[in-house]
UniProtKB/TrEMBL annotation:
Signal peptide (from-to): none
The family this protein is said to belong to: Belongs to the phosphofructokinase type A (PFKA) family. Mixed-substrate PFK group III subfamily.
Complexes and interactors: Homodimer or homotetramer.
Function: Catalyzes the phosphorylation of D-fructose 6-phosphate, the first committing step of glycolysis. Uses inorganic phosphate (PPi) as phosphoryl donor instead of ATP like common ATP-dependent phosphofructokinases (ATP-PFKs), which renders the reaction reversible, and can thus function both in glycolysis and gluconeogenesis. Consistently, PPi-PFK can replace the enzymes of both the forward (ATP-PFK) and reverse (fructose-bisphosphatase (FBPase)) reactions.
Protein name per Swiss-Prot or TrEMBL: Pyrophosphate--fructose 6-phosphate 1-phosphotransferase
Keywords, comma-separated and alphabetical: Cytoplasm, Glycolysis, Kinase, Magnesium, Metal-binding, Transferase
Length: 342
């Protein structure tokens, strides 16, 4: 078989580990041939390819990003896009596709599968918010990077008796904030799932100062204060039509400084959380997803997404993969909320 591979959406540590596993097992065990599509769905749309074989995947396991490049191109939003993809696949002699991506990329894969394209999906997102899988690779790396930043911020915050507000990624789900906040010993953690009361946060901060320690507040980029405490922060669209978030950390630091009389600083971790080498856990998960994906292709089990259930890698229908956004359940948040400020 001749198999196309693409990576779409925001990049994520572990993408290269998936590509490597798919290609190595595909070539060595099954004798398949591969073609790399550049920049997500734009690759098959424009027929933009690269050679993808054993040589190309050598040494990429520890590398962040994706050797294939990525984009958020959606062929269903482009006139004649789907037809172009189908024609290009036929012309290039591509029998099946491995699509590695998040909600949008897998959403496209689901629709193409319904239209007869042979495709399997591998889920990725640092946000860990895809409902059908217990974890996605990239999440562990992002959490570790944020945790390390928080560890460092504790000492500078304490030296200067300041509040440090750390803004982490997470537009709709606060998994990174929750895990990094717990692991880094943050004093307050704020998530998109629950609006926060800025007066209450200021009270936690003051309590922490009374204990002779400087507080660290972790806030997810999509977190919002109670209605009326702030107009929705900057949610304009950028030049590419993506929602631009960010700004909540700065706003919160200013509020806390005014309310507590203690200096406050903001650190926005941003894309640092997505860059660089994947952790061991992410390399393992990404490799296992890749091995299962090529097995599925080889067996002709198309229209499936790889998922982690407990410790097993299973195949679920692609449509299930993007059906539900996995947010932090109330009880998981309540668990830690009880010791905020202490
Ligand atoms: O989906 C992952 C994510 O990292 C979000 O947490 C973040 O809001 C978004 O991507 C930003 O992506 P970009 O800057 O590439 O549009």
């Amino acid at each position: 078989m001749r198999i196309g591979v693409l990576t779409g959406g925001g990049d994520c540590p572990g993408l290269n580990a998936v590509i490597r596993a798919v290609v190595r097992k595909g070539v060595d065990t099954y004798g398949h041939e591969f073609v790399g599509f550049r920049d997500g769905w734009r690759g098959p749309l424009e027929g933009n390819t690269m050679t993808l074989g054993i040589k190309e995947v050598r040494g990429i396991l520890p590398r962040g990003g994706t050797i294939l490049g990525s984009s958020r191109t959606n062929p269903f939003k482009i006139e004649g896009g789907v037809e172009k993809i189908k024609n290009n696949l036929t012309e290039l002699g591509v029998d099946a596709l491995v699509a590695i991506g998040g909600e949008d990329t897998l959403g496209v894969a689901t629709k193409l599968d319904e239209l007869g394209v042979k495709v399997v999906g591998v889920p990725k997102t640092i946000d860990n918010d895809l409902g059908a899988t217990d974890y996605t690779f990239g999440f562990d790396t992002a959490v570790n990077i944020a945790m390390e930043a928080i560890d460092r911020l504790h000492t500078t915050a304490e030296s200067h008796h300041r509040t440090l507000v750390v803004e982490v990624m997470g537009r709709h789900a606060g998994w990174i904030a929750l895990h990094a906040g717990i692991a880094g010993g943050a004093n307050v953690i704020l998530l998109p799932e629950k609006q926060f009361d800025v007066e209450q946060v200021a009270a936690y901060v003051e309590k922490r100062f009374q204990h002779q320690y400087a507080p660290i507040v972790v806030v997810a980029e999509g977190a919002q204060p109670l209605d009326g405490q702030m107009v929705l922060h900057n949610q304009e669209l950028d030049a590419f039509g993506h929602v631009r978030l960010g700004g909540i950390g700065q706003w919160l630091a200013e509020q806390l400084e005014a309310k507590t009389g203690k200096e406050a600083r903001t650190v926005v971790l941003g894309h640092i959380q997505r860059g660089g080498t994947p952790t061991a856990a992410d390399r393992v998960l990404a490799t296992r997803f890749g091995l299962q994906a090529i097995d599925a292709i080889h067996e002709g089990d198309f229209g499936k997404m790889m998922a982690l259930r407990g410790t097993d890698i299973v195949r679920v229908p692609l449509i299930e993969g993007t059906r539900e956004l996995k947010t932090v359940p109330v009880e998981r948040y309540t668990e830690v909320e009880t010791f905020f400020g202490s």
